[in-house]
Write a structure and sequence with these properties.
By secondary structure, the chain is α+β, with helices and mostly antiparallel strands. It contains 4 helices and 4 strands; from the N terminus they run ααααββββ.
C-alpha cells in the first residue's frame, strides 16, 4: 500500500524525469538515450536524498539510545500506572530540529518519526534496540 508521501515522491520523480527528457531531446539526444540519462539522474538524486535522511535517522538512533531503552524498561514495569503521552512528550523534547515525531509505539516500545519525507521506526523491545525504515 502506497502512502501519500510515497505517492508524492513518485509523482515528483516522474515530473522531474519528463522535464529532463524534454531538455535532453531538445539538445539533440535520442528518446531512449534521453530517457535513460534522465532516469539515472532522478534515481541518483533519490538515493542521495534517502542516504542523507538515513544518516540523520542514524544520528537520532544513536543519541536517544539510552533514553529510549530506559523508557522501554520503565514502561514494561509501570504501564498500569503511567500515561504513555508523558513518554511521547519526553521523546519529542529530545529530538533535534528538523526531525518530526510521528507516534509512540507500545508493542514493541519505540517511536516513529520523519526525516524530510522519509519515515523511520526506532524500537526498543526487551532484548535489542533497532532502527527500521518505514516504506
Amino acid at each position: 500500500m502506497t502512502t501519500l508521501a510515497q505517492a508524492q515522491r513518485i509523482q515528483h520523480r516522474v515530473a522531474q524525469h519528463a522535464e529532463l527528457m524534454r531538455k535532453f531531446i531538445a539538445d539533440g539526444m535520442g528518446r531512449d538515450a534521453a530517457s535513460k540519462k534522465a532516469l539515472d539522474i532522478v534515481t541518483g538524486k533519490a538515493n542521495a536524498e534517502h542516504d542523507a535522511a538515513r544518516a540523520k535517522a542514524q544520528a537520532v538512533y544513536e543519541s536517544l539510545q539510552n533514553l529510549v531503552c530506559n523508557l522501554s524498561d520503565r514502561w514494561r514495569e509501570e504501564r498500569e500506572y503511567e500515561d504513555s503521552s508523558t513518554y511521547a512528550d519526553l521523546i519529542k523534547s529530545k529530538l533535534p530540529e528538523g526531525i518530526i515525531f510521528d507516534q509512540l509505539t507500545l508493542r514493541p516500545f519505540g517511536f516513529k518519526f520523519k526525516v524530510d519525507t522519509f519515515r523511520f521506526h526506532i524500537q526498543a523491545p526487551a532484548t535489542k534496540y533497532v532502527l527500521k525504515p518505514i516504506a
